[in-house]
Amino acid sequence: MVVEAVASEAAAARKHTEVAVGILVRHDGALLLSTRPPGKPYAGYWEFPGGKLEVGETVEQALRRELVEELGVAIGPAEVWKVTEHDYPHALVRLHWCKVHAWTGEFEMREGQAMAWQQLPLDVSPVLPGAYPVLQWLSEERGIAFVPPESDS
Ligand SMILES: Nc1nc2c([nH]c(=O)n2[C@@H]2O[C@H](COP(=O)(O)OP(=O)(O)OP(=O)(O)O)[C@@H](O)[C@H]2O)c(=O)[nH]1
């Protein structure tokens, strides 16, 4: 009884970490993915660029800051397209996904990541499981099947 009460309080107290994520779409439809830097949870997994919102930031402001910090590019307009959630052992995240079609600057991997422009279906793996729902929607938009890898979900 006591243990159950403690566990449910802990679950209720678990706050969402708000994350801004950019889906950079090149003129030929390719999408930008990069690897998670060493030292972070899921290091080496492929993801869309982005990161956590800081206090007082909007999603767009956070995305703009993160893409300068990580990639050295200044993005044009970014509006939230989808919002998803994923419960990882390290965090319960709420992901605010923005499609971005315009940016300026040269790509520079400022955190030691690898980057790849990818058409769907993706050639790279593994991909963060929190990105599966958007990969599904992006694939549907293009009339392509997406099957999430079972071992990573
Ligand atoms: N950038 C990004 N994060 C994702 C994706 N999918 C996904 O589940 N996430 C999750 O969103 C969170 C992003 O946090 P982060 O650690 O990359 O953010 P950050 O750069 O601000 O980190 P730091 O400042 O703590 O080092 C992680 O828990 C990550 O697992 C994705 O496609 N891109």
Automatic annotation (TrEMBL):
<keyword id="KW-0234">DNA repair</keyword>
<keyword id="KW-0479">Metal-binding</keyword>
<keyword id="KW-0227">DNA damage</keyword>
<dbReference type="InterPro" id="IPR047127">
    <property type="entry name" value="MutT-like"/>
</dbReference>
<protein>
    <recommendedName>
        <fullName>8-oxo-dGTP diphosphatase</fullName>
        <ecNumber>3.6.1.55</ecNumber>
    </recommendedName>
</protein>
<feature type="domain" description="Nudix hydrolase">
    <location>
        <begin position="14"/>
        <end position="140"/>
    </location>
</feature>
<dbReference type="InterPro" id="IPR000086">
    <property type="entry name" value="NUDIX_hydrolase_dom"/>
</dbReference>
<dbReference type="GO" id="GO:0006260">
    <property type="term" value="P:DNA replication"/>
</dbReference>
<dbReference type="GO" id="GO:0006281">
    <property type="term" value="P:DNA repair"/>
</dbReference>
<keyword id="KW-0460">Magnesium</keyword>
<dbReference type="GO" id="GO:0044715">
    <property type="term" value="F:8-oxo-dGDP phosphatase activity"/>
</dbReference>
<keyword id="KW-0235">DNA replication</keyword>
<dbReference type="InterPro" id="IPR020476">
    <property type="entry name" value="Nudix_hydrolase"/>
</dbReference>
<dbReference type="GO" id="GO:0044716">
    <property type="term" value="F:8-oxo-GDP phosphatase activity"/>
</dbReference>
<dbReference type="GO" id="GO:0008413">
    <property type="term" value="F:8-oxo-7,8-dihydroguanosine triphosphate pyrophosphatase activity"/>
</dbReference>
<dbReference type="GO" id="GO:0046872">
    <property type="term" value="F:metal ion binding"/>
</dbReference>
<dbReference type="InterPro" id="IPR020084">
    <property type="entry name" value="NUDIX_hydrolase_CS"/>
</dbReference>
<dbReference type="InterPro" id="IPR015797">
    <property type="entry name" value="NUDIX_hydrolase-like_dom_sf"/>
</dbReference>
<keyword id="KW-0378">Hydrolase</keyword>
<keyword id="KW-0515">Mutator protein</keyword>
<dbReference type="Pfam" id="PF00293">
    <property type="entry name" value="NUDIX"/>
</dbReference>
<comment type="similarity">
    <text>Belongs to the Nudix hydrolase family.</text>
</comment>
<dbReference type="GO" id="GO:0035539">
    <property type="term" value="F:8-oxo-7,8-dihydrodeoxyguanosine triphosphate pyrophosphatase activity"/>
</dbReference>
